[in-house]
Amino acid sequence: MSGEDIDSEKAEALARDRLVEAFRHPEESTRSDVARLAELTSSIKVALKRGETPEKRDIEEARFCLRQVEERLDEVTVLFDWNPWDTDATWGKLTDEQQAEIEERDRQRLRNDTDPETSIVEECE
């Protein structure tokens, strides 16, 4: 199947629907990534509040769910063709191309900085 065979509007709609499911609030769904993360962190909180030791398995599963939620957030970023840096991704998660884009944007900002009290252009050049 080539890229020409894909209906981009339909693909976007399917991606949106899948992301909506993943982000459902716990009151709407017990199966969504967000709902499962909320359930696990609540269990951890209750144990801590009672002076008990939380279950290691709950921590493990919560971390897994957290990674799932982060992956879904990355998918939203891709869906709208945003640079991940602008949605608070870590530098290491950026591609070389995305890092170069951010570095160029930062250079442009430094060149455009004309306030002598905040300008560090002279020091950088």
Task: Explain the overall architecture.
With 125 residues, this protein is an all-alpha fold. The protein has helices at residues 8-22, 33-49, 56-79, 96-112, 121-124.
CA-based gyration radius = 21 Å
- State the helix count: 5
Query: For the residues shown, what is the average pLDDT?
Result: 85
Between the first and last Cα atoms, what is the distance in angstroms? 50 Å
Poorly predicted regions: none
Strand content: under 5%
- The backbone outline, from C-alpha atoms, is flat
The helicity comes to 55-70%
Structural category: mainly alpha
The tally of strands reads 0
Q: Please give the largest β-sheet.
A: none
SSE ordering = HHHHH
Number of domains: 2
